[in-house]
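Dear H.,

Thanks for agreeing to be a second pair of eyes. The structure we're designing against is below in token form, covering all 142 positions.
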């Protein structure tokens, strides 16, 4: 198994490793309650099997500062068997949902008013968020 880490103690395909990077618990067939850490936070999973698939009701959100950072996370998830969705959402190859959200978009929404409306309208046309287009919309240039 190839493990590609983006975060400390989390792999891109939705599996959570221990803080030392080990994923030994994954080798236990049909692990019912896998344990690990995500960014230093203890996590316990529950393998509900095919009756309880991943849905958009739960997602990880990654706040980014630059287009390069946005692209890196997006491409790591989508490029490793995942798939794009709309408005900054994507799904990894295991079906876990992610939101790759540039902070400028969050700031635009928090600003409210016309700025938020313009940024929201721009976002609705995107899959991966284009920071330059969001910035232009915020300034009324989009």
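And this is the sequence the design step returned. I haven't edited it by hand at all.
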């Amino acid at each position: 198994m190839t493990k590609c880490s983006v975060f400390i103690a989390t792999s891109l395909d939705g599996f959570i490793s221990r803080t030392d990077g080990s994923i030994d618990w994954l080798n236990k067939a049909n692990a019912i309650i896998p344990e690990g850490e995500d960014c230093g936070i203890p996590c316990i999973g529950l393998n509900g099997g095919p009756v309880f698939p991943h849905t958009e009701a739960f997602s990880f959100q990654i706040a980014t500062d630059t287009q390069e950072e946005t692209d890196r996370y997006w491409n790591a998830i989508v490029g490793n068997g995942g798939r794009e969705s709309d408005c900054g959402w994507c799904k990894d190859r295991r079906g876990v949902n992610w939101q790759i959200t540039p902070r400028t978009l969050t700031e635009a929404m928090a600003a409210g008013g016309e700025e938020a409306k313009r940024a929201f309208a721009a976002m609705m046309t995107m899959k991966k968020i284009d920071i330059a287009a969001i910035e232009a919309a915020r300034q009324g240039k989009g």
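Two observations from my side: The mean pLDDT is 79. The CA atoms of residues 8 and 39 lie 5 Å apart.

Warmly,
E.
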